[in-house]
Amino acid sequence: MIRTILRLPYDIGASLWVNRLLLWQFTIRNIRARHKGSYLGVVWMVLNPLLMMSLYSFVFGVIFNGRYDAASDETALDYALGIFLSLTIFQLIAEVMGVSTTIILGNANIVKRVVFPLEVLPVSQVGASIYHFLISICLVFIGIIVFGRELSWYSAALPILVLPVIMFSLGLGWFFSAIGVYVRDIGQLMQFLTLALMYCSAIFYPIDRVIVAGFYPVLKFNPLAHIVEQARRTVLWHEPLQMQPVIYIYLTAFATLLVGYFVFSRLKKGFADVL
Question: Which of 104, 144, 136 is nearest to 120 (CA)?
C-alpha cells in the first residue's frame, strides 16, 4: 500500500507524458464543443466572465456595500476587480466540478469499445478550463492596468497560486468522474457543492472578516479561500505572499491530486461493467 502511494506521482507524470498528444486532441475537442453551434462562439469566453463580474459586483458591492477593507482608499471599482480576480480563480475548479460526474458517462462508447487511457478524459477537461482561465485572467490584468492600481512585481507570484488550483482540479476531476459512474446521484449534488464552495472561499469578503465573525476555525481548512486571499494580496494590494498559507495550500493540493488519481485508477477497472 505504501509503495503504491509513493509511486503515484511517477505514475501520474508518466501517464500524462505518454498520452500528451491524445490529451492535447481531447482538450481541443472540449474547447470547441463548448461553443459549437453558438453564434458568438469564443466571444462568450470574454462576455461570460464580464457579465458575472458585473452581476456580483452590483449585488455585493452596490446593494450590500461590500468591501475587502484592504486599503483605506479602496473604491467600488477595486472591489469589482477583486471579485473578478477571485471568480476567475474559482471558475477554474468550478468548471471541472460541474462536468466531472458525467465525463466518463458521456464517453461510454470509448469506455466499452476501445482500449483507451481513461485518465485522459478528466485531464482534458481541466485543460479546457485552463484555456478559459487564461482568457479571463488576461481580462483581469487589463482591467487592473486601465481602471485599478496598476500591476506590481508581486503579481508575478500568481502562477505559484494557480499551480495548486490546477492540482486541485485534476484531483477532484479524477475523483468525481470515477465516483459518478457508480453513484449517479452525486451529479445532482454537484451544483450545490460548487455553490457552497464559492461562498466558503472568501470571494466576496476578506478572510479577516471570517476570523472576526468566528467562522474561521471551520473555513480555515478550505485551501481555496487562502488561494483567493493570497491572489488579491499580491495582484491587487501589492503585498508579498505569506508562506504559511502557501505551504498549506500545496500540501492539500498534492494530497487531493494523489487521492483523486488513486481512486480513479482503482475504480476504472469496473467502468465498462457498470456502463
Answer: 104
Taking the C-alpha atoms of residue 161 and residue 250, their distance in angstroms, rounded to an integer, is 9
Cell numbers linked to 254: 498534492
> Can you tell me the distance from the alpha carbon of 49 to that of 136, in angstroms, rounded to the nearest whole number?
7
For residues 147 and 77, is the Cβ–Cβ distance under 8 A?
Answer: yes
Cell triple for 122: 478528466
Indicate the domain borders of the chain. 2-274
Q: Taking the C-alpha atoms of 14, 20, 26 and 32 in order, what is their torsion angle to the nearest 10 degrees?
A: 140
Q: For residue 57, count other CB atoms closer than 10 A to its CB.
A: 21
Q: How far apart are CA 229 and CA 54, in angstroms?
A: 20
DSSP-based three-state secondary structure for 275: coil
* This prediction's pTM: 0.90
Distance of CA 163 to the CA centre of its chain: 10
Query: What pLDDT tens digit does each residue of the chain (275 aa) get?
Result: 556 666 777 778 888 888 889 899 999 988 887 766 655 566 667 777 777 777 777 777 677 777 887 777 777 788 888 888 999 999 999 999 989 999 998 888 888 777 788 899 999 999 999 998 998 898 888 888 887 778 889 999 999 999 999 999 999 999 999 999 998 888 888 989 999 998 888 888 888 777 655 566 667 789 999 999 999 999 988 899 999 999 999 999 999 999 999 999 999 888 878 77
Residue-wise DSSP of 45-79:
HHHHHHHHHHHHIIIIIIIS------STT--HHHH
The backbone region for 92, taken as left when phi is positive above 0, alpha when psi lies in -120 to 50, beta otherwise, is alpha
